[in-house]
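Task card 7
Instruction: Convert sequence to structure tokens.
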Amino acid sequence: MVVAGAGPVGLLLAAELSLAGVSVTVLERLTEQNQALKAGGINGRSNQLLARRGLGARIAAAAAKYGDGAAAFTRERSGTGRPARFGGHFAGLLLNPASTLDVPPATALPQQALERLLGAWVAELGIPVLAGHEVTGLRQGTDEVTVRVRTSGGPKTIRCAYLVGCDGGRSTVRKLAEFAFPGTDPLTTGYQAALTLDPAVPLPTGWHATERGLYAHGPKPGRILTVEFAGPPADRDAPVTRAELQEALRRVSGTDVIVSEVESAARFTDNTRQAATYRIGRVLLAGDAAHVHPPFGGQGLNVGLQDAANLGWKLAATVHGWGPRELLDSYTTERHAVAGQVLENTRAQIAIMRPDPHSRAMRALFAQLLEADVTLTDLLGSRLQGLDVRYEAGPRSHPLTGRYLPDLPGLEDAMRLPRPVLADLGDSAEVGDVADGWSDRVDLRRLPETPGVTALLLRPDGYVAWAADGTPDTTALREALTNWFGEPR
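Output:
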């Protein structure tokens, strides 16, 4: 198996495959880590996923090195004089979720720090990560993919059962395999940067809508984001200069700020596209290779991590030969819809960021609704965090089926490996008897009793494949096991 791209998505996918017993190699075009400013944290759902793989303590330790700059940022007023309890933002409007919304805690952690953490984990697992290996061509056969690679030592050819492109928004794998990538063209120019501002001209922290667009300062001092609506940049790939950043920040903020030093900077636009399918034969896409959109709220990173979790176990099951024929296609079915919602919410955010009077009127109304209508706030908070995802489960299924399972006592150890888990919470002999037919690939675990549920079948990505709240329906359980994990032995 070959994964192209050693960013967080590619590294997590490689780990998922390796833990599931699949040999995998990661190819990375760069020889050094890209230091351009990217996502600033992982959301609650990604925290849960990584903690269940045993990385919770590492993430907490890594996050501690960066302090709690987010705390000051989230104390910014929401516009009505009430402090906001941070649940993300929508177009720079802070979300203040109701206490009834179960929002797992997010973690402020730069994407590069997460990438280093995952890289160390992948190294411990013994997975080869080949830096300076650029994919230049591919050819699909009936049973394998032939990948052509450029290296400092000359070209080489690698053959693999499957190739997964996790190589970013300008994915070479996506282009070589000729995936359709429809969407909308950019209208904006944005900057993300970490810089030093002269304190003689202070710049307010928080999100600010102005006559020229929108800017954010924080959570760390000197971390800025700007959005202007004068069209896309003439040359997105040209180096971002200190003078360019200073002029953009002055235009959009209406202040004479002085940028004295630039640590890192990158341009972005609202180019928004999604691959029509995530699989063509033995070539698949995940993360930004499959979907691109403006970087608001770090949604791209977090959706990509969930792509990797969804794909990893399905691809491993297919390689091992026990996955049902349609299993790998369910990756596109499930994750395409989720990313489609992200594309839609980022387009909507752009719409109410515009500085024209009509858009500003809608923005003001939307801000009032966020403050007055708790249900709407919870809805948006859930969507931005990926908490409202429910995969197709059937009309008469248990309410938990298709949803991500919250933490239960004993579940953390059970989910340490990316393997299916059949959890018996009612000490049912029938559940154990059924499980015997899939014991080579599904772990049976006895968990403490929990109100409202007596048995659960958990997919490796943490979603519920089947559930019962009384006497388990063993026929339905067998159907779910067969549907997701193949025929019994």
